[in-house]
Amino acid sequence: MIKTRRDFLMRVGQAGGYSAAFATMQSLGLMPMLASDASEVDLPADAGKGVKVAVLGGGIAGLVSAYEMRKAGFQCTVLEARSRPGGRNWTVRNGTTVEFTDGTRQAAQWDAGNYLNAGPARIPSIHKTMLGYCNELDVPLEVEVNTSRSALLVSDKAFGGKAVEQRQAINDTRGHVAELLAKCIKQSALDHDLTSEDRERMLEFLRIYGDLKGDLKYQGSLRAGAAQLPGAGPVVEQLRAPLEMSALLDAGFWRGMMFEETLDMQATMFQPVGGMDRIPYAFAKSLGNMVQYNAPVKEIRKTANGVKILYSRNGATQALEADYCVCAMPITILKSIPNDFSARVNAAIRDTTYADAYKVAWESKRFWETDFNIYGGISWLTGGPIGLVWYPSARLSSKTGVVVAGYAVEGNSEFGKLPDTAAKLAASRAAVERLHPGYGQHLAKPIYVNWGKIANNLGSWVGRGTGGDYYEGPYKEFTTPDDRFYFAGDHCSHVGAWQEGAALAAHRTLRMLGERVKAEKLTGALKSARV
Amino acid sequence: MIKTRRDFLMRVGQAGGYSAAFATMQSLGLMPMLASDASEVDLPADAGKGVKVAVLGGGIAGLVSAYEMRKAGFQCTVLEARSRPGGRNWTVRNGTTVEFTDGTRQAAQWDAGNYLNAGPARIPSIHKTMLGYCNELDVPLEVEVNTSRSALLVSDKAFGGKAVEQRQAINDTRGHVAELLAKCIKQSALDHDLTSEDRERMLEFLRIYGDLKGDLKYQGSLRAGAAQLPGAGPVVEQLRAPLEMSALLDAGFWRGMMFEETLDMQATMFQPVGGMDRIPYAFAKSLGNMVQYNAPVKEIRKTANGVKILYSRNGATQALEADYCVCAMPITILKSIPNDFSARVNAAIRDTTYADAYKVAWESKRFWETDFNIYGGISWLTGGPIGLVWYPSARLSSKTGVVVAGYAVEGNSEFGKLPDTAAKLAASRAAVERLHPGYGQHLAKPIYVNWGKIANNLGSWVGRGTGGDYYEGPYKEFTTPDDRFYFAGDHCSHVGAWQEGAALAAHRTLRMLGERVKAEKLTGALKSARV
Q1: How far is CA A378 from CA A119, A149, A265, A362, in A?
Q2: Residue B188: left (phi > 0), alpha (psi -120 to 50), or beta?
């Protein structure tokens, strides 16, 4: 389904020729991607012939690396500390145990088919590289409903603390904005900014934009929902009284209202049917015994002409020697692994901190569908420790579902300061109760995942706010090869915390590695190393 | 999954008691429906015991009528002119023949799984009655993607006739509106309308709303898409230059931009997996031989104490006698059927005209997905005979799909004035080419459905603009029983052209019929009629 990078280059070529410099930049990931292009590595099928690579970490970056290197003839081994592939791409379902580094354990006991994507949980349609892998690996996708106009907004500062539908807040806000701007235009406030023709056209536009009445006043709109829906016989629609602008300003719903316009949150979004981990399991199935599970890395060493990775297996230390290493492990974990990285890379490791994102999920009957018309989407809360409640897009209209009531970085937040897990679960339930009074009682079988407390991760993604800007400092070190060590992961991209970033970073790394191997083969350096 | 009407009444009762008058109004469909309630008929299981009803027409209203009357003990026969159930709920797929009243025929020859919902093609989540039937009848639903930010807008009056992404038009428009209003507020144009505190809060809101920069100027936003998406290594995002407001005013994209806010077009929307006709076929399966196919109605007569329907079957005229008749046929068809309706109803039939909505559909490889990131949703065209191109939500990422290039009322429109079908198909292909230059050639195997030319319908829905207002005139006649004749259909509701309207009208009709039967049983009138 995906157009290839090669197609793109050919099209560019047809449009007027392209230089070797352009092609090289493209191959190194230095050229812009068109929105409609998936990234491809595009190494010749024999590029890696006779070259052995150790891949550290079986998350998306490691799996993509091994999968693509195999296509190019490399001999790869992936070392994965866990008994499963995927890293942060982790789906919790019936039978899954969530164990924290403090020893606490939670066992998910949910109905068959219910799940929590504890890590990534959506794929935007602009993430063509990951969508391309889903297609290539036969991972069925379904629509992830990221926005529902029936979902709610609630603030402790407005509307008596009662939730309002997003259709109401969004369309009443637009109505007020349109009315106010129309009033200014009529009062000549923009006579210096707009031609008289454009002023007239603006008024006509604002009439449609805000659903204003003839006098350019906003008096409510069916867009905002109905006090009474139209029906049969004599039952006609009745508008809701519009929410007042001053009350909307009190509420400050803006973050939740604008969320859907975030580029990588815009419709259409996807999720794999059955859980996000269908993706790493599909990679793993394809890679077979190239992936070594239960093989935590203990030391990362250089040899005279290659690398040597010490790892643990069934209680014994084993060694993996290779020509190169693609290190796709979390930086948090690298902090405590003895290594032969350069001083600059070890400094970057030291200077990098991770955020501790969490999710709280509950199983419940689907009251949000039956009683609130909410099918997928997110409700937002202002004030209080929980900022959002995210409804499942999977198995719509089935009997039960898993709802996420709380997803954010815990850190020093109001939620993070709660004394214990019981208090956090209570806050999560209370958030649902604020949105859906009387329904909090239906939540059962909670699962609380805090990535800061999950072994082999110790964090969710690079923390941008702490200890200097990651992208101004450490980033450069991880995106530059360190002799025979190459790095990959979402932290080696500007698409942090997304699987797409991990895949793009893996691709760029492999292109760099391909160039290196090609050069070394030409000079004979690689051959002598292998002899 | 659906809360019952009874639940609703109980909740109302618990909240403070309710009167018999309220309950009666409710039962007659005179009370508002809550957004979260499905309509239910709520007749006792023996309400129709010993009562025979002739249902004319096996569209949604007729099927719902028979299905609900069976629950209440009525003895029903549905007479359907066609060999299939559903009426306008008609899915064209491989093997379907589309025959017009002028004798022209088209045969759909599409890949397995591809289809066109020639009639209704989406179910909004506020249409709880139809969603309830899908649940009750085990009709699997999937999300119908009604809006995609990657879908396009094109106008002959702006941007050199080139299409722009909806994300760009929508977010650049919002940015300009926010900047202009902020400027007015800063220039004191609204000092009389807003308190000084609200002016400050408005500016802060507008900053977020329009993604304005520090000086409250709009300089583009990642919401509007990227000239370059962020990537791996050095590849950072680059904003697009914003579309200018004056050019957006030239373009006049407003209809397409605001479509998603129409109440019954708002996310989340649904479609049955495999085609909309899964719904009537599920009803028909349940009703079994209660539905007589190939049984066109020829005369609608009264008897001394009941009704007598003459219909044709295998070339012979047959008679169906019953106590009551629920007439769920299109008004267009009733115009030419001899009947014993009252003069007021026949006048209403005469005064009612139907619109002739059409759809043009093509099979194609899914270039809109692979090359444009468009998964479902609708692109809109300004200028020219075709106003929209609607991409399939079914089987996303499969090899081919059926795209609708043209859906509107034909009537006296620019499209309707085209000389023949060839010209209409050419216009349809040209619309796709305007949006997706170079891709129009991929469209193949067109199907053009004009409901005005489909026998047994002769129209798509009540035409509101012609010959006086339908809802001011004929509507009252069809929503009032005519002795033993009761009417049902979307034209008996204020939810015209929607299946929900047909179902709500059927429910209201059955409630009225239930009251009538109850009264007649009490007075003995029905019993004597049956003796």
Answers
A1: 17, 9, 12, 15
A2: left
**Of the candidates B27, B151, B60, the residue with the CA atom closest to the CA atom of residue B515:** B27
DSSP annotation of B165 reads: E
Q: Touching check for B492 and chain A: CB below 8 Å?
A: yes
In chain A, whose CA is at the least distance from the CA of B2?
A370
CA distance A226 to A213: 17
- Give yes or no for a contact between B421 and B446, defined as CB atoms under 8 angstroms apart: no
The structure's pTM equals: 0.93
List the alpha helices (DSSP H) in B323-391: 331-334, 343-351, 367-370
Cβ distance of A150 and B125 shorter than 8 Å: yes
- Which of B149, B261, B495 is facing A171, going by the closest CB pair? B261
Length of chain A: 531
Amino acid code (one letter) for B460: S
Pair type for strands A226-228 and B115-117: unpaired
A171 shares contact with chain B (CB less than 8 Å): yes
Q: What is this model's ipTM? A: 0.93
Chain B residues whose CB is inside 8 A of the A131 CB are 397
What's the helix, strand, coil split of chain B in %, to 5?
35, 20, 45
- Read off the pLDDT of residues B201-248 as tens digits, 9 standing for 90 and up: 999 999 999 999 989 999 999 999 999 999 999 999 999 999 999 999
| Token couple for B456 | 């047994």
List the one residue out of A331, A345, A291 whose CA is nearest residue A69: A291
A191: its two tokens: 């006579």
B117 part of contact set with chain A, CB < 8 Å? no
User: CA-to-CA distance for B385 and B383, rounded, in angstroms?
Assistant: 7
Output the six-digit token pair for A98. 């969530």
Q: Find chain B residues with C-beta within 8 A of A147's C-beta.
A: 267
Enumerate the β-bridge partners of residue B364. B401
Distance between CA atoms of residues A438 and A436, nearest Å: 6
Kindly determine whether residue A249 and residue B198, on different chains, have CB atoms separated by under 8 Å.
yes
Task: List all residues 6 or more positions away from A404 whose beta carbon is below 8 Å from its beta carbon.
Answer: A116, A359, A360, A361, A388, A389, A390
- Short-list B229, B230, B233, CA closest to A487: B233
Are residues A1 and B370, on separate chains, in Cβ contact within 8 Å? yes
Q: What is the DSSP string of A378-429?
A: EEEEESSS--EEE---TTTTSSEEEEEEEEEE-TTSTTTTSSSHHHHHHHHH
Contact B374, B148 (CB under 8 A): yes
**B150 close contact with A: CB closer than 8 A:** yes
Say whether A233 and B370 touch across the interface (CB within 8 A).
no
Opening angle at CA A22, ends A20 and A28, nearest 5: 100
d(CA A179, CA A186): 10
Look up residue B224 and give its DSSP letter.
G
Angle among Cα A253, A259, A261 to the nearest 5 degrees reads 125
Q: Which residues of A touch B3 (CB under 8 A)?
A: 370-371
Q: Going from the N-terminus, what domains does chain A have, and what CATH number goes with each?
A: 38-85+291-352+464-530 (3.50.50.60), 91-150+266-276+357-453 (3.90.660.10), 165-251 (1.20.1440.240)
Residue A328 near residue A506 (C-beta atoms within 8 A)? yes
Count of other CB atoms within 10 angstroms of residue A195: 10
Interface of B with A in 247-306 (CB under 8 A): 249, 252, 254-255, 258, 261-263, 266-268, 270
Q: Running along chain A, 531 residues long, what does each successive block of 10 average in pLDDT?
A: 38 40 44 64 95 98 98 98 98 98 98 98 97 97 98 98 98 98 97 96 98 96 96 96 98 98 98 98 98 98 97 96 98 98 97 97 97 97 97 96 98 97 98 98 98 98 76 96 98 97 98 96 72 42
Q: CA-to-CA distance for A149 and B171, rounded, in angstroms?
A: 18
A485/A291 Cα distance (integer angstroms): 19
